[in-house]
Amino acid sequence: MVEAFSLERASKSGAVFDEEKLRWLNAIYIRSLAIDDLLQRLRPFLSESGYAPEKLDALWLKKVVETVKDELTTLADAGSHIELFFDDHYEITPDAKLILDAEKSRKVVKAFGEYLSSAADSPQEIYAAAIKYAKEKSGVKGRDLFLPVRAALTGKIKGPELDRVFAILGRDSACKRLQWAEKACL
């Protein structure tokens, strides 16, 4: 290979990189990392974003990173993706507000909240049961069922799988978030 290289064939123009493709490749690389390796690599970025990984419960943080792993394009993105797990009084995006303003969304969120506040299911079963109850009570299904729940729990219309988010948040935090969403825009 060294013999095939020639400076005469090198040009003076700068290299051109497809930044979008590089970000895509980086996201694939992040997804391929073992969770413990990813967590180690994320620590400085989490600290820089204001989250002190050394002060957080290690098992909880590991679950959070596993949940948002597929959403990351770069390691620096981690702070903006994990913020949803830290504050029950989160900012609601304009897109999420638009979803939550719809009448059928109000029915879904109300039914979901009713079930959460009165159910005695185990933590593993409560999310699926609450979704089923909201579906039956509101008559809404599919995207029109899940999007309002996501918007109310996270303040966003895109993100990690809702069942995984709910498992980390737990019933109490989810109930607080539903109340917050109701006060903020319903």
Structural notes for this entry:
The protein has 2 domains: 19-85, no CATH class; 94-185, Arc Repressor Mutant, subunit A, CATH 1.10.10. 65% of the residues lie in helices and 0% in strands. With 186 residues, it is mainly alpha-helical.
Q: Tell me the name of the CATH class of the largest domain.
A: Mainly Alpha
| Proportion of beta-strand residues | under 5%
Q: Which structural class do you get from the secondary structure elements?
A: mainly alpha
Query: How many discrete structural domains?
Result: 2
Query: What kind of oligomer do you see?
Result: single chain
Which structural traits does this protein have?
mainly alpha, 2 domains, 9 helices, elongated
Summarize the structure.
The protein has 186 residues and is mostly helical. It contains 9 helices and no strands.
Write the layout of secondary structure elements.
Elements: H1 19-32, H2 35-48, H3 58-68, H4 78-82, H5 94-101, H6 103-118, H7 123-138, H8 143-154, H9 162-185
Helix pairs in contact: 2-3, 5-8, 6-7, 6-8, 6-9, 7-9, 8-9
